[in-house]
Known about the structure:
The protein is of the alpha/beta class. The protein has helices at residues 2-8, 20-49, 81-85, 131-134, 153-162, 172-180, 240-259, 265-287, 295-300, 306-323, 345-369, 435-445, 474-477, and strands at 61-67, 116-119, 124-127, 140-147, 190-194, 219-220, 328-333, 376-381, 385-391, 395-399, 403-408, 416-418, 420-421, 428-430, 433-434, 455-457, 460-462. It has a single domain, classed as 3-Layer(aba) Sandwich (Alkaline Phosphatase, subunit A).
Amino acid sequence: MFSRLCRQHQLPHHEATYSRRDFLLKSGAGFGSVALSGLLREEAARAAALPVAHHPPRAKNVIWLFMEGGPSHLDLLDPKPLLNKLAGQPLPDGFQEPITAMGEKGSPLLVAPRTWRQHGASGLWASEWIPHTAKCLDDIAVIRSCWTNGINHSGGVCQMNTCIDVAGRPSLGAWVSYGLGTENKNLPAFVVMCDNAGQPVNGPRNWGSGFMPASYQGVRINGAGKEPIAHLHLPPGYSPARQRDKLELLEEFNRAHAVARPQQSELEARIRSYELAFRMQAEAPEAVDLADETARTHAQYGLDQKETASFGRICLLARRLVERGVRFVQLYSGAGSKWDSHSDIEINHPRLCRSMDLPVAGLLTDLKQRGLLDETLVIWGGEFGRTPMSEKGDGRDHNPTGFTIWMAGGGVQGGQVIGSTDELGLYAVENRMHVRDIHASILWLLGLDNMRLTYDHKGRPERPTINEGRFNRKLISG
Length: 478
């Protein structure tokens, strides 16, 4: 094979001469090959033994809408009349001011001058900032009692993705990819897209695989650009057969390099990535091509409007990807912590809400119309909420002690509120859900038990929620 390909690609091929040192090196590498083969068989055996699901799944796929920077629950889905009544006054006695990243101690309460209305048969409340999402509330379970340990953006985003506020552990998408794999071998199992060219805080660590093989990490594609996946098309004059020959030669070099380095999972992941890239050249161009979508669908996602086109595009791509078997899709709204509102919240939040509200409603409606919402779990939220106290006079600080996310589809019972914060929206007080409980609930809906899904690392079984976290049954029972 090597000689044939060298001749075909006009590569120099020299006869090798071996010294005693070369013999010893090659012999050592041969033993490394045995070790690598054993490790790969062991990994394959573990994968074969891993259950497809621990119990019947409610959902097959996940679309996670991540509002990076921390949206204000107090201005969107958790109305607090007392906050407006006491606006301008200090935090009342009996309320402990939380530790925040940048907060001004003793700041007065900030008014939330929203217009609140009840919607749908369920009568759930939403503000005027999200009129389109409000129409979908009968399909949404609003969880008002979330809390986290991350007080700044780096720790908060890290914990919301990995269950811990310091780097090093696999992301939830990586765990799902490890536990369930993909339904389409020609597309990645875990895809990440952002609404702008910016980098979310922490960057690729948010969708990394931590101590698990690198092949489980997320694949970021440029969903907001004209060419979502670069270099997918063959160069002029290249045939698939020629591309396959080049790939086989490259794999031969990579395998030889990997023989002496069995501990580096990145090498095996790189080899697999080339194979995946070759297969993607057949299917991915069609998956990310929106030309065959109707004008009505484009309008439904807001692609015909400047404010909504960017996030609308990746929402539509997310639907197309889960439709084709991609297991986990994560979309970042406001990539680069743009939802952060330490000042000018009355300018910042309405603009961001307008950019995502119509696309999110379009996604939910489209999934439902196509019969996909029942099997697709949609999650909306950020790394934390905002405080009822003011910052810089017209903004709100980070609030990790009480905030809102919502879930829809994937077996979740919509039209309900789960949990609550106190009268000012500062602390989660009823049916509290830590990030570990959120992850455990997502995994449970996918058919995975967070305490039974394990990965052996350095002689100990690691679990996605670090031996904590419980499924909240109210998600399916109301």
